[in-house]
Design brief:
The chain starts with a helix and ends in a 12-residue tail after the last helix. It contains 8 helices and no strands.
């Protein structure tokens, strides 16, 4: 995080980071890794300020930047694999929706990402190079369902999270 964020000058930190992103847009290839890092820093500033809507938007931009890089790589161009930061942003997005009070979106996205990684795990003969697997999304969703007292969602996610809830701190 920037010095502004460390001093809790979130408006200044956000402005400085947005200026950096605007500079990148005017000078760099949008398929570049710099955008992923820039959006991740932006997300961190928003999260530190507990601005969950801004956090969500920065995470969505991170995921989109990773998808652009992945498309670029699939076209035969070389570069850094965006799988790990995309996975992190997806997991963090579920938490951000929940922390922002949008439990429905949190559980819906958890379901989307659970399905995505379940499918990838079935198609890939090796361990995926990600921090969060389908079971992690299920455990996170189960915790959200329990904290928000949603019995149907608890039953749904309990079947998908055979290990139950892992130690996840949702509330900063």
């Amino acid at each position: 995080m920037s010095a502004f964020g460390g001093l809790h000058l979130y408006g200044d930190a956000l402005h400085a980071q947005q200026q950096w992103i605007d500079f990148l847009k005017s000078t760099a290839d949008e398929d570049g890794q710099a955008f992923v890092q820039a959006y991740m820093i932006l997300e961190g500033i928003y999260a530190e300020a507990k601005d969950w809507h801004g956090t969500e938007q920065a995470l969505i931009q991170t995921i989109d930047a990773c998808d652009r890089i992945h498309s670029h790589l699939a076209a035969g161009n070389t570069g850094i694999d965006p799988t790990a930061p995309r996975n992190w942003a997806q997991y963090t997005l579920v938490s951000a929706y929940y922390l922002g009070g949008d439990t429905d979106s949190a559980l819906s996205k958890a379901d989307d990402f659970y399905s995505e990684y379940s499918q990838k795990q079935q198609q890939t003969p090796y361990l995926l190079p990600v921090a969060y697997h389908a079971s992690d999304f299920a455990a996170l969703a189960l915790q959200i369902a329990k904290e928000s007292k949603r019995p149907n969602a608890i039953d749904y996610w309990r079947r998908r999270a055979p290990g139950g809830i892992k130690i996840i701190a949702l509330h900063p």
